[in-house]
């Protein structure tokens, strides 16, 4: 039997840097946020493949609300370079601490799992590894290369750290030619100090811009959480900043507070407000926008990639008229 004391100890082990923070109120989720508990044969099959290959998934580590839906479709977002992050973002449920050395077999194991699940599209993300000279860029490159060899028909989407102060790291990953390069801005500039203190808004924006400068054909993607206290005008300014950086695909989802020690939810944004954000973003020129309470960066990523390619083809066709 798991006691409340056990649960608190587990949370403290995952987030030691947050334990001196006062507890904040956990707001009751509205009906449009609730999802079914995960389970079923295909869910268990996906779990078995992940465990057999000693993989970490952001689905589990970040407590994604869509894990039941995605794993039941044999979709999983692989998280490389371990389960421990060197950053301490106040919104994130991934463990914080001193990471272990990189697993040299991980790229091959990820590729093996991708092939075993017969994925048409895979999303690869990672923890932040500020302890590494290149921020883990080479590991991303090796993982992309391993997937290309084991599952050549699978399209690859990467969700990367910011590679802050890691010269040449982003360029190495861009040159590995994933199909989609995703880096989330997460929130509006005003909230960075409290929500994403280890990052810099304009450094993240510049990373996305550099992707397009180096490889204009590579799709770029970025995401925002809402419900943290941002204003509508601030969200629209971030949209403009993303478009100036050439971002193709925007995702917007509701922030969900993992524990009482994490950043509190300011409010639950309504489905109607998400629809309005999507309409505004499309009018600003994004090829695709996914905005809903349960939208996450990798949710429906395969289907979205097909739609993203079709949107670009349509746009190019219009430009030739």
Automatic annotation (TrEMBL):
Q: What class of enzyme is it?
A: transferase
Q: What is its EC number?
A: 2.8.1.8
Q: Pathway it belongs to?
A: Protein modification; protein lipoylation via endogenous pathway; protein N(6)-(lipoyl)lysine from octanoyl-[acyl-carrier-protein]: step 2/2
**Alphabetical keyword list:** 4Fe-4S, Cytoplasm, Iron, Iron-sulfur, Metal-binding, S-adenosyl-L-methionine, Transferase
**UniProt: [4Fe-4S] cluster 2 binding residues:** 85, 89, 92
Note describing how the cofactor binds: Binds 2 [4Fe-4S] clusters per subunit. One cluster is coordinated with 3 cysteines and an exchangeable S-adenosyl-L-methionine.
Give the protein's cofactors. Answer: [4Fe-4S] cluster
- SMART domains in the record: Elp3
Q: Which CDD domains match?
A: Radical_SAM
What the entry lists under PANTHER family is as follows: LIPOYL SYNTHASE, LIPOYL SYNTHASE, MITOCHONDRIAL
Q: What is this protein called?
A: Lipoyl synthase
Q: Highest lineage ranks of the organism? A: Bacteria, Pseudomonadati, Pseudomonadota, Alphaproteobacteria, Caulobacterales
What gene does this protein come from? lipA
